[in-house]
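Figure caption, in words: inputs first, then the predicted bound structure.
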Amino acid sequence: MAGNIFGSLFKLTTFGESHGPAIGGILEGCPAGIELDLESIQEDLDRRKPGQSSIVTQRKESDEVSILSGVFNGKTTGTPIGFSINNTNQKPKDYSHIQDSYRPSHADYVYDQKYGIRDYRGGGRSSARETASRVVAGSIAKQFLSPTKINAYVSAVGPLSLDTNPSDVDLSLIEKNPVRCPDQKMALKMEDFIKKIRKEGDTVGGIITCIIKNVKIGLGEPVFNKLHAELGKAMLSINAVKGFEYGSGFSGTKIKGSEHNDLFNEDGTTKTNYSGGIQGGISNGMDIYFSVAFKPVATIMQNQETINSKGEKVEMQGRGRHDPCVVPRAVPIVESMAALVLADFSLIKRTNKI
Ligand SMILES: Cc1cc2nc3c(=O)[nH]c(=O)nc-3n(C[C@H](O)[C@H](O)[C@H](O)COP(=O)(O)O)c2cc1C
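Bound structure (flavin mononucleotide present):
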């Protein structure tokens, strides 16, 4: 299986499956001498972990990370940072019904067709459990990038959406509710909606918006590795993601150039920021903001028609512990993937000019 490595200089390799003994990763290229705050890595993991509230999957995993190499006396040594997270709450029996049948819109069918063998327990490598490793590496990247600040939040759940401009959002409110929506009234509505959907045995999608402040000018490599192109790839590599837009995105098509142009102030900042902090694939120092669309995930607790590995029609009903809506848990994953992209470009930037 190819495709388990992300980044070119600041480079993450992940390994592991949902129901194996552990998942983990190797992070190469992290410069030496960074004082690592291990508690803040664990805090980011706790924001992603299952069982954290009543609106997420009730799989109970403590998701404690062990740093195996690359850190000495609290500082990075410049050598590969190896880490692992044990899987402690596996229930393979919950998945016996998908051993020979395929969940519609999950990865079961394509894995079987492509590899001819599939670890069906918890979805194996296709499980979003893999994203815990991204959060560890992303959390290290965030510390490397400081004082750049990356904050993501839930801006929509199903039909409920928060229309506040990302730069007007009070970021200190994001972690005040289990949905991770910075508007408390909207968060309550979203929470009720997710609970209702869960009772129906169904799932619902949502949108995560991310805002990055204090960004250096010059990140991103035209022409193929433009900053927005790499952010798009990073986000679209997250399980269940169906869409990505940055800056004015699709809504920018509805206004004229005369309104859309970001006019300069004398210091090079711009009066508006429809560009989303990126021009020509290069960061311009303004806030970067983008949104990521997540689908209603595949495993529903309702009867559905599907096929088995012999191509016969069968009935299937989801079992086990699943997320009715993944966006509250995906917030730190979005931040982490953004951090990995920016960390990589920060290192590459050092090759740009003497
Ligand atoms: C945080 C998170 C949790 C997820 N939990 C579930 C889940 O409980 N059940 C499920 O069917 N899919 C879940 N998914 C989505 C699947 O991993 C994903 O849909 C599957 O691998 C197929 O990939 P695709 O949807 O990107 O095509 C989750 C995704 C994320 C980001």
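The first helix runs from residue 38 to 48.
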